[in-house]
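Per-residue structure
===
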Amino acid sequence: MPVMDGPEREERARLQRAWNGAVRKLAAGPTAETIGARLARLAAEGADAYDLTGWSDMYGNEDGIVGELERRTAAALGTEAAAFFPTGTMAQQAALRCWADRTGDSTIAMHPLAHPVRWEGDALRRLTGLNVVHPTDAPRLPSADEVRDVAEPFGTLALELPLREAGFLLPSWDELTSTVAAARERDAVVHFDGARLWECTTHFGRTLAEIASLADTVYVSFYKSLGGLSGAALAGPEAIVKDAAAWRHRYGGQLFQQWPTALAAVVGLERELPRLPEYVAHAKLVAEALRGALAESDVPWWLVSPRVPHTHQFQVWLPYGVKELTEASARQAEETGTLLFRRWSEPTGAPPGLSMHEVTVAGDGLEWSAEDVRAAFADFLGFLRASGTWSAFGSGAGAD
Protein backbone atom coordinates (compact mmCIF):
# COMPACT_ATOMS: atom_id res chain seq x y z
CA MET A 1 0.00 0.00 0.00
CA PRO A 2 1.49 3.41 -0.96
CA VAL A 3 2.43 5.83 1.78
CA MET A 4 -0.33 8.39 2.34
CA ASP A 5 0.34 12.06 2.92
CA GLY A 6 -1.33 14.08 5.68
CA PRO A 7 -4.56 14.98 3.86
CA GLU A 8 -4.97 11.43 2.59
CA ARG A 9 -4.56 10.01 6.09
CA GLU A 10 -7.07 12.51 7.44
CA GLU A 11 -9.60 11.60 4.76
CA ARG A 12 -9.12 7.89 5.37
CA ALA A 13 -9.65 8.43 9.11
CA ARG A 14 -12.76 10.51 8.40
CA LEU A 15 -14.22 7.74 6.22
CA GLN A 16 -13.49 5.15 8.88
CA ARG A 17 -15.26 7.27 11.49
CA ALA A 18 -18.27 7.69 9.20
CA TRP A 19 -18.52 4.00 8.35
CA ASN A 20 -17.88 2.72 11.87
CA GLY A 21 -20.14 5.31 13.47
CA ALA A 22 -23.18 4.35 11.42
CA VAL A 23 -26.00 2.83 13.44
CA ARG A 24 -27.45 0.81 10.55
CA LYS A 25 -25.36 -1.01 7.95
CA LEU A 26 -25.64 -4.03 5.68
CA ALA A 27 -22.46 -5.59 7.03
CA ALA A 28 -19.86 -4.70 9.63
CA GLY A 29 -16.51 -3.67 8.17
CA PRO A 30 -13.19 -5.32 9.05
CA THR A 31 -12.15 -2.29 11.14
CA ALA A 32 -15.49 -1.62 12.81
CA GLU A 33 -14.11 -1.97 16.34
CA THR A 34 -11.29 -0.64 18.45
CA ILE A 35 -8.50 -3.08 19.29
CA GLY A 36 -9.79 -3.38 22.82
CA ALA A 37 -13.34 -4.08 21.73
CA ARG A 38 -12.19 -6.69 19.22
CA LEU A 39 -10.07 -8.46 21.84
CA ALA A 40 -12.95 -8.45 24.30
CA ARG A 41 -15.33 -9.92 21.73
CA LEU A 42 -12.79 -12.55 20.70
CA ALA A 43 -12.42 -13.65 24.32
CA ALA A 44 -16.17 -13.78 24.89
CA GLU A 45 -17.02 -15.61 21.66
CA GLY A 46 -13.93 -17.79 21.84
CA ALA A 47 -14.98 -19.19 25.20
CA ASP A 48 -18.03 -20.72 23.53
CA ALA A 49 -16.03 -22.23 20.68
CA TYR A 50 -12.81 -23.50 22.29
CA ASP A 51 -11.38 -24.29 25.73
CA LEU A 52 -9.48 -21.14 26.63
CA THR A 53 -7.82 -22.79 29.63
CA GLY A 54 -5.49 -24.58 27.23
CA TRP A 55 -2.03 -23.27 26.36
CA SER A 56 -1.34 -20.98 23.43
CA ASP A 57 0.21 -22.64 20.39
CA MET A 58 3.88 -22.71 19.46
CA TYR A 59 4.64 -22.96 15.73
CA GLY A 60 1.13 -24.29 15.14
CA ASN A 61 1.58 -27.49 17.15
CA GLU A 62 -0.97 -30.19 16.35
CA ASP A 63 -2.20 -30.61 19.92
CA GLY A 64 -3.09 -26.92 20.26
CA ILE A 65 -5.65 -24.58 18.79
CA VAL A 66 -4.08 -24.47 15.33
CA GLY A 67 -4.25 -28.25 15.10
CA GLU A 68 -7.86 -28.14 16.27
CA LEU A 69 -8.69 -25.55 13.61
CA GLU A 70 -7.11 -27.74 10.94
CA ARG A 71 -9.15 -30.75 12.08
CA ARG A 72 -12.41 -28.78 12.14
CA THR A 73 -11.69 -27.35 8.68
CA ALA A 74 -10.99 -30.79 7.21
CA ALA A 75 -14.20 -32.09 8.79
CA ALA A 76 -16.26 -29.21 7.38
CA LEU A 77 -14.86 -29.80 3.88
CA GLY A 78 -14.85 -33.59 4.07
CA THR A 79 -11.14 -33.89 3.29
CA GLU A 80 -8.41 -36.07 4.78
CA ALA A 81 -6.41 -33.15 6.11
CA ALA A 82 -6.03 -29.37 6.21
CA ALA A 83 -3.09 -27.08 6.92
CA PHE A 84 -3.34 -23.57 8.33
CA PHE A 85 -1.57 -20.79 6.39
CA PRO A 86 -1.12 -17.14 7.40
CA THR A 87 -2.36 -16.00 3.96
CA GLY A 88 -4.33 -17.41 1.07
CA THR A 89 -1.66 -16.18 -1.34
CA MET A 90 0.86 -18.45 0.33
CA ALA A 91 -1.56 -21.37 0.56
CA GLN A 92 -2.34 -21.33 -3.15
CA GLN A 93 1.25 -20.86 -4.25
CA ALA A 94 2.27 -23.84 -2.13
CA ALA A 95 -0.57 -25.98 -3.46
CA LEU A 96 0.01 -25.17 -7.12
CA ARG A 97 3.75 -25.65 -6.74
CA CYS A 98 3.19 -29.08 -5.20
CA TRP A 99 0.84 -30.10 -7.99
CA ALA A 100 3.34 -28.94 -10.62
CA ASP A 101 5.97 -31.18 -9.02
CA ARG A 102 3.61 -34.14 -8.84
CA THR A 103 2.18 -33.82 -12.36
CA GLY A 104 5.47 -32.85 -13.95
CA ASP A 105 3.71 -29.94 -15.65
CA SER A 106 4.34 -26.35 -14.52
CA THR A 107 1.44 -24.88 -16.51
CA ILE A 108 -1.73 -23.87 -14.64
CA ALA A 109 -5.03 -23.20 -16.44
CA MET A 110 -6.67 -20.25 -14.69
CA HIS A 111 -9.04 -17.38 -15.44
CA PRO A 112 -7.36 -14.01 -16.10
CA LEU A 113 -9.61 -12.45 -13.43
CA ALA A 114 -8.49 -14.96 -10.77
CA HIS A 115 -6.80 -13.60 -7.67
CA PRO A 116 -3.30 -15.05 -8.37
CA VAL A 117 -3.31 -13.34 -11.77
CA ARG A 118 -4.77 -9.99 -10.73
CA TRP A 119 -3.57 -9.34 -7.20
CA GLU A 120 -0.39 -11.26 -6.35
CA GLY A 121 2.34 -9.40 -8.22
CA ASP A 122 3.09 -12.19 -10.70
CA ALA A 123 4.13 -14.40 -7.76
CA LEU A 124 3.21 -17.67 -9.50
CA ARG A 125 5.82 -17.05 -12.18
CA ARG A 126 8.46 -15.18 -10.18
CA LEU A 127 8.40 -17.25 -6.98
CA THR A 128 7.24 -20.66 -8.11
CA GLY A 129 8.29 -20.72 -11.77
CA LEU A 130 4.80 -21.62 -12.97
CA ASN A 131 3.16 -20.63 -16.24
CA VAL A 132 -0.49 -19.65 -16.64
CA VAL A 133 -2.83 -20.23 -19.58
CA HIS A 134 -6.37 -18.88 -19.77
CA PRO A 135 -9.20 -21.18 -20.93
CA THR A 136 -11.40 -18.10 -21.45
CA ASP A 137 -11.38 -14.35 -20.90
CA ALA A 138 -15.18 -14.14 -20.67
CA PRO A 139 -16.37 -12.73 -17.30
CA ARG A 140 -17.42 -16.14 -15.95
CA LEU A 141 -15.90 -19.50 -15.08
CA PRO A 142 -14.63 -21.54 -18.06
CA SER A 143 -16.91 -24.08 -19.68
CA ALA A 144 -16.07 -27.73 -20.25
CA ASP A 145 -15.51 -27.13 -23.96
CA GLU A 146 -13.16 -24.23 -23.24
CA VAL A 147 -11.12 -26.43 -20.93
CA ARG A 148 -10.97 -29.17 -23.57
CA ASP A 149 -9.91 -26.64 -26.21
CA VAL A 150 -6.93 -25.10 -24.35
CA ALA A 151 -4.22 -25.23 -27.01
CA GLU A 152 -1.34 -26.38 -24.80
CA PRO A 153 -0.99 -29.02 -22.10
CA PHE A 154 -1.55 -28.06 -18.47
CA GLY A 155 -1.16 -30.01 -15.29
CA THR A 156 -3.66 -28.19 -13.05
CA LEU A 157 -6.97 -26.42 -13.57
CA ALA A 158 -7.58 -23.77 -10.89
CA LEU A 159 -11.15 -22.50 -10.48
CA GLU A 160 -12.08 -19.52 -8.30
CA LEU A 161 -15.45 -20.14 -6.64
CA PRO A 162 -17.05 -17.65 -6.76
CA LEU A 163 -15.23 -15.53 -9.36
CA ARG A 164 -15.11 -12.27 -7.44
CA GLU A 165 -13.98 -9.86 -10.16
CA ALA A 166 -16.88 -10.93 -12.41
CA GLY A 167 -19.45 -10.19 -9.69
CA PHE A 168 -19.02 -13.16 -7.34
CA LEU A 169 -20.28 -15.44 -10.09
CA LEU A 170 -20.75 -19.20 -9.88
CA PRO A 171 -21.56 -21.73 -12.59
CA SER A 172 -24.45 -24.13 -12.20
CA TRP A 173 -23.70 -27.44 -10.52
CA ASP A 174 -23.92 -29.28 -13.84
CA GLU A 175 -21.59 -26.75 -15.46
CA LEU A 176 -19.08 -27.11 -12.64
CA THR A 177 -19.06 -30.90 -12.71
CA SER A 178 -18.70 -30.87 -16.51
CA THR A 179 -15.76 -28.46 -16.34
CA VAL A 180 -14.05 -30.60 -13.71
CA ALA A 181 -14.66 -33.70 -15.82
CA ALA A 182 -13.11 -31.98 -18.84
CA ALA A 183 -9.95 -31.31 -16.82
CA ARG A 184 -9.83 -34.97 -15.78
CA GLU A 185 -10.10 -35.96 -19.44
CA ARG A 186 -6.86 -34.06 -19.97
CA ASP A 187 -5.23 -35.84 -17.01
CA ALA A 188 -5.10 -32.57 -15.06
CA VAL A 189 -5.71 -32.16 -11.35
CA VAL A 190 -8.25 -29.62 -10.10
CA HIS A 191 -7.68 -26.97 -7.43
CA PHE A 192 -10.46 -24.76 -6.06
CA ASP A 193 -9.62 -21.20 -5.08
CA GLY A 194 -12.39 -21.24 -2.50
CA ALA A 195 -11.64 -18.10 -0.52
CA ARG A 196 -15.41 -17.61 -0.43
CA LEU A 197 -16.41 -21.25 -0.89
CA TRP A 198 -18.23 -21.14 2.44
CA GLU A 199 -21.23 -19.29 0.97
CA CYS A 200 -21.55 -21.37 -2.22
CA THR A 201 -23.75 -24.13 -0.79
CA THR A 202 -27.03 -22.29 -1.36
CA HIS A 203 -26.38 -21.69 -5.06
CA PHE A 204 -25.20 -25.24 -5.74
CA GLY A 205 -27.71 -26.91 -3.45
CA ARG A 206 -24.89 -29.10 -2.16
CA THR A 207 -22.94 -29.43 1.08
CA LEU A 208 -19.43 -28.08 1.47
CA ALA A 209 -18.10 -31.63 1.44
CA GLU A 210 -19.90 -32.41 -1.83
CA ILE A 211 -18.49 -29.27 -3.45
CA ALA A 212 -14.96 -29.86 -2.16
CA SER A 213 -15.04 -33.50 -3.30
CA LEU A 214 -14.92 -32.35 -6.93
CA ALA A 215 -11.42 -30.93 -6.47
CA ASP A 216 -8.08 -32.45 -5.52
CA THR A 217 -7.29 -29.53 -3.20
CA VAL A 218 -9.28 -26.59 -1.87
CA TYR A 219 -8.12 -23.30 -0.37
CA VAL A 220 -10.46 -21.46 1.99
CA SER A 221 -10.16 -18.13 3.79
CA PHE A 222 -11.00 -17.54 7.42
CA TYR A 223 -11.54 -13.78 7.25
CA LYS A 224 -13.61 -13.63 4.07
CA SER A 225 -17.21 -14.57 4.98
CA LEU A 226 -16.30 -15.98 8.40
CA GLY A 227 -15.20 -12.71 10.01
CA GLY A 228 -11.80 -13.95 11.21
CA LEU A 229 -8.73 -11.82 11.77
CA SER A 230 -6.79 -13.33 8.84
CA GLY A 231 -5.52 -16.73 7.77
CA ALA A 232 -6.42 -19.52 5.38
CA ALA A 233 -6.28 -23.26 5.00
CA LEU A 234 -5.38 -25.72 2.29
CA ALA A 235 -7.45 -28.90 2.42
CA GLY A 236 -7.14 -32.17 0.55
CA PRO A 237 -5.35 -35.53 0.67
CA GLU A 238 -2.98 -35.88 3.62
CA ALA A 239 0.09 -36.41 1.43
CA ILE A 240 -0.34 -33.21 -0.61
CA VAL A 241 -1.27 -31.20 2.49
CA LYS A 242 1.97 -32.33 4.14
CA ASP A 243 3.95 -31.35 1.06
CA ALA A 244 2.31 -27.92 1.05
CA ALA A 245 3.02 -27.51 4.77
CA ALA A 246 6.71 -28.04 4.03
CA TRP A 247 6.55 -25.21 1.51
CA ARG A 248 4.71 -23.11 4.09
CA HIS A 249 7.82 -23.33 6.27
CA ARG A 250 10.11 -22.47 3.33
CA TYR A 251 7.97 -19.43 2.49
CA GLY A 252 8.22 -18.16 6.07
CA GLY A 253 4.70 -19.09 7.10
CA GLN A 254 5.55 -21.16 10.16
CA LEU A 255 4.76 -18.38 12.64
CA PHE A 256 5.80 -18.66 16.29
CA GLN A 257 2.30 -18.09 17.68
CA GLN A 258 -0.96 -17.92 15.76
CA TRP A 259 -3.54 -18.54 18.46
CA PRO A 260 -5.47 -15.22 18.12
CA THR A 261 -5.95 -15.80 14.39
CA ALA A 262 -6.76 -19.47 14.91
CA LEU A 263 -9.25 -18.68 17.68
CA ALA A 264 -11.04 -16.12 15.50
CA ALA A 265 -11.22 -18.72 12.72
CA VAL A 266 -12.67 -21.36 15.06
CA VAL A 267 -15.27 -18.80 16.17
CA GLY A 268 -16.10 -18.09 12.53
CA LEU A 269 -16.63 -21.78 11.80
CA GLU A 270 -18.90 -22.10 14.81
CA ARG A 271 -20.88 -18.85 14.58
CA GLU A 272 -20.80 -17.47 11.02
CA LEU A 273 -20.66 -20.56 8.84
CA PRO A 274 -24.16 -21.76 9.82
CA ARG A 275 -25.61 -18.29 9.13
CA LEU A 276 -24.23 -17.85 5.61
CA PRO A 277 -27.25 -19.38 3.82
CA GLU A 278 -29.40 -16.77 5.58
CA TYR A 279 -27.08 -14.00 4.39
CA VAL A 280 -27.22 -15.32 0.81
CA ALA A 281 -31.01 -15.39 0.88
CA HIS A 282 -31.23 -11.85 2.24
CA ALA A 283 -28.74 -10.57 -0.35
CA LYS A 284 -31.32 -11.51 -2.99
CA LEU A 285 -33.90 -9.29 -1.26
CA VAL A 286 -31.43 -6.39 -1.03
CA ALA A 287 -30.42 -6.71 -4.68
CA GLU A 288 -34.04 -6.82 -5.82
CA ALA A 289 -34.88 -3.75 -3.73
CA LEU A 290 -31.93 -1.85 -5.19
CA ARG A 291 -32.98 -2.79 -8.73
CA GLY A 292 -36.48 -1.56 -8.02
CA ALA A 293 -35.23 1.71 -6.54
CA LEU A 294 -32.89 2.29 -9.48
CA ALA A 295 -35.60 1.50 -12.04
CA GLU A 296 -37.81 4.16 -10.47
CA SER A 297 -35.00 6.74 -10.24
CA ASP A 298 -33.65 9.15 -12.83
CA VAL A 299 -30.18 7.58 -12.78
CA PRO A 300 -29.26 7.46 -16.51
CA TRP A 301 -27.56 4.06 -16.43
CA TRP A 302 -27.05 1.40 -13.78
CA LEU A 303 -26.31 -2.26 -13.26
CA VAL A 304 -26.88 -4.70 -10.41
CA SER A 305 -24.74 -7.78 -11.15
CA PRO A 306 -25.61 -10.54 -11.03
CA ARG A 307 -29.30 -9.78 -11.25
CA VAL A 308 -29.92 -12.44 -8.60
CA PRO A 309 -26.82 -12.77 -6.38
CA HIS A 310 -25.12 -16.16 -6.29
CA THR A 311 -23.63 -15.48 -2.85
CA HIS A 312 -24.14 -12.82 -0.18
CA GLN A 313 -22.13 -10.35 -2.28
CA PHE A 314 -22.86 -8.62 -5.58
CA GLN A 315 -21.89 -5.54 -7.60
CA VAL A 316 -23.65 -2.22 -8.15
CA TRP A 317 -22.46 -0.01 -11.04
CA LEU A 318 -23.32 3.68 -11.45
CA PRO A 319 -22.25 6.34 -14.00
CA TYR A 320 -20.58 8.71 -11.54
CA GLY A 321 -17.09 9.29 -10.20
CA VAL A 322 -15.53 7.33 -7.36
CA LYS A 323 -14.85 10.45 -5.32
CA GLU A 324 -18.41 11.76 -5.57
CA LEU A 325 -20.00 8.39 -4.82
CA THR A 326 -17.74 7.67 -1.86
CA GLU A 327 -18.37 11.17 -0.48
CA ALA A 328 -22.14 10.75 -0.79
CA SER A 329 -21.88 7.42 1.04
CA ALA A 330 -19.85 8.98 3.85
CA ARG A 331 -22.16 11.98 4.23
CA GLN A 332 -25.17 9.71 4.42
CA ALA A 333 -23.54 7.77 7.24
CA GLU A 334 -22.49 10.93 9.06
CA GLU A 335 -25.79 12.75 8.78
CA THR A 336 -28.35 9.93 8.95
CA GLY A 337 -26.51 7.12 10.73
CA THR A 338 -27.29 4.76 7.83
CA LEU A 339 -24.50 3.17 5.80
CA LEU A 340 -25.62 1.73 2.47
CA PHE A 341 -22.33 1.88 0.54
CA ARG A 342 -18.69 2.34 1.50
CA ARG A 343 -15.78 3.06 -0.85
CA TRP A 344 -16.45 2.88 -4.59
CA SER A 345 -13.86 1.84 -7.18
CA GLU A 346 -13.05 2.06 -10.89
CA PRO A 347 -12.10 -1.53 -11.83
CA THR A 348 -9.29 -2.01 -14.32
CA GLY A 349 -10.68 -2.21 -17.85
CA ALA A 350 -14.05 -0.69 -16.94
CA PRO A 351 -15.46 1.98 -19.27
CA PRO A 352 -14.45 5.49 -18.16
CA GLY A 353 -17.00 7.30 -16.02
CA LEU A 354 -18.39 4.13 -14.42
CA SER A 355 -17.84 3.17 -10.80
CA MET A 356 -18.53 -0.08 -8.99
CA HIS A 357 -19.34 -1.03 -5.41
CA GLU A 358 -19.22 -4.53 -3.93
CA VAL A 359 -22.26 -4.93 -1.67
CA THR A 360 -21.97 -7.42 1.19
CA VAL A 361 -25.00 -8.53 3.21
CA ALA A 362 -24.20 -10.08 6.59
CA GLY A 363 -25.66 -10.24 10.09
CA ASP A 364 -26.33 -6.52 10.47
CA GLY A 365 -28.17 -6.45 7.15
CA LEU A 366 -30.73 -9.07 8.11
CA GLU A 367 -32.73 -6.34 9.85
CA TRP A 368 -33.15 -4.39 6.58
CA SER A 369 -36.47 -4.75 4.80
CA ALA A 370 -36.93 -4.03 1.10
CA GLU A 371 -38.46 -0.68 2.05
CA ASP A 372 -35.45 0.11 4.23
CA VAL A 373 -33.17 -0.47 1.25
CA ARG A 374 -35.30 1.70 -1.02
CA ALA A 375 -35.43 4.53 1.52
CA ALA A 376 -31.68 4.37 2.13
CA PHE A 377 -30.99 4.49 -1.60
CA ALA A 378 -33.28 7.50 -2.04
CA ASP A 379 -31.34 9.30 0.70
CA PHE A 380 -28.07 8.32 -0.95
CA LEU A 381 -29.18 9.82 -4.25
CA GLY A 382 -30.08 13.01 -2.40
CA PHE A 383 -26.53 13.33 -1.09
CA LEU A 384 -25.16 12.54 -4.55
CA ARG A 385 -27.31 15.24 -6.12
CA ALA A 386 -26.09 17.73 -3.55
CA SER A 387 -22.52 17.11 -4.71
CA GLY A 388 -23.30 18.72 -8.09
CA THR A 389 -22.45 15.53 -9.97
CA TRP A 390 -25.99 14.89 -11.11
CA SER A 391 -26.20 17.62 -13.72
CA ALA A 392 -23.04 16.39 -15.41
CA PHE A 393 -24.73 13.18 -16.46
CA GLY A 394 -28.30 14.20 -17.19
CA SER A 395 -31.25 11.99 -16.38
CA GLY A 396 -33.18 9.14 -17.89
CA ALA A 397 -34.38 5.61 -17.28
CA GLY A 398 -31.88 2.93 -16.39
CA ALA A 399 -32.04 -0.85 -16.64
CA ASP A 400 -29.97 -3.82 -15.66
Q: What stands out?
A: Residues 46-271 form a domain with the Aspartate Aminotransferase; domain 2 fold (CATH 3.40.640.10). The chain has two domains: 6-32+275-389, 46-271. Residues 391-398 have pLDDT under 50 and may be disordered.
